[in-house]
Amino acid sequence: MRWIDLAKLLIPIAGAVIPKAAPLVPAILVAVDEAQRAHPDSDEAREVKRAHVINSVAASAEIASRLGPVAISPAQAITIAQAVFQIVDTTHAIAKAQRVDDPPAPAPQP
User: 6 with 88: CB under 8 angstroms?
Assistant: First the structure.
């Protein structure tokens, strides 16, 4: 499964389990989608995409804090977005490690 597909599944869940993350879930999802469209899949674009998401989420937090009852600082928003990335990265690494291209060799017979 691609990282982006896992992200779309896990970001809403992360919003439910990370304190203060729920209000940022829509901003994170939109920013991830924007970054994916702007920078097609490639290893070089990974950090550019993450920077886009971090900047977008920080800006969203600043606007939300100014306009409404949501009080999340840009620094808190960045920490939350990074925690969400860790969840997705860890799950992606586990999924990749479990992929099997070749069946295992049969066990030796005694």
Answer: yes
Q: How far apart are CA 73 and CA 16, in angstroms?
A: 19
Q: Does residue 1 carry a pLDDT above 80?
A: no
Here the tokens at position 47 are 């950090």
Per the prediction, the chain carries an average pLDDT of 82
Task: Give helix 45-67 / helix 74-98 axis angle, nearest 10°.
Answer: 140
Tokens of residue 72, six digits: 């999340």
Assign residue 79 a region (left: φ > 0; alpha: ψ between -120 and 50; beta: otherwise). Answer: alpha
The pTM score is: 0.74
In which band, very low, low, confident or very high, does the pLDDT at 44 lie, cut at 50, 70 and 90? Answer: low
Q: Whose structure tokens read 């005694």?
A: 110
Report how far residue 39's alpha carbon sits from residue 66's, in angstroms, rounded to the nearest whole number.
30
- The confidence band for 63, taking pLDDT boundaries of 50, 70 and 90, is confident
